[in-house]
Structure formats: C-alpha cells, structure tokens
Amino acid sequence: MKAFWNALRVTAARWRAENEQCRGGIVMIWEGEVYAWKNEVRDPQCERPGVYAVDEEGQIFIAVGGDDYNGAERWIVKQPAEVV
C-alpha cells in the first residue's frame, strides 16, 4: 500500500513541477490522473467519493461517503505526510 501512497505523491509532485504558478494548495487526483488544483481542501460535496487530494507536504486526503451525483460527505486524512 505504501507504493500506492508514494505514487499519488509522485503524481502530485510532477504536476506541481509543470505548473509552478499553482503554489501550495492541493492537487486533486481521480483514477491516477490530476484533474484540478485548489488552494485548500474544501467542499467535499463538490467532489466524488474516491478523489484524492495531495497537499504540498505530501499529506493525502480522500473524499468519502456520499455518491457520484451528490458528491462526497467529508474529507479524511488517509495518509499523513512522511517525515524524511
């Protein structure tokens, strides 16, 4: 499972490197692909369950509950940032 979390972090880091104008915030990932950037984790009902959000420190959140039509119910911290 650690490889999965690291893959999300690498995906977000690559996107950040190509989009330097988007500093901080979170990179939104669905099915392994980046689809958005936001300045902060917010409004879970605007995302479908299963979306991952990776912040600049590498902390990973996942949108849970709800459904595809009404959006997720909440964000949970799925994987804290790794301390190097």
Description:
This is Antirestriction protein ArdR. It is a single chain. It is built from 1 helix and 5 strands. A 5-stranded antiparallel sheet has the order 2-1-3-4-5. It has one domain (2-79). It starts with a helix and ends in a 5-residue tail after the last strand. The protein has one helix at residues 2-18; strands spanning 26-30, 33-38, 52-55, 60-64, 74-79. It is an alpha+beta fold and 84 residues long.
Number of helices: 1
* H-E order: HEEEEE
Q: Record the strand order, biggest sheet.
A: 2-1-3-4-5
Radius of gyration: 12 Å
User: Would you tell me the structural class of the helices and strands?
Assistant: alpha+beta
Q: Which sheet architecture does the biggest sheet show?
A: 5 strands, antiparallel
Helix-residue proportion: 10-25%
Euclidean distance between termini CA atoms: 18 Å
Distinctive features:
84 residues; alpha+beta; 1 helix; 20% helix; Antirestriction protein ArdR
List the helices and strands and how they pair.
Blueprint: H1 2-18, E1 26-30, E2 33-38, E3 52-55, E4 60-64, E5 74-79
Antiparallel strand pairs: 1-2, 1-3, 3-4, 4-5
Protein name: Antirestriction protein ArdR
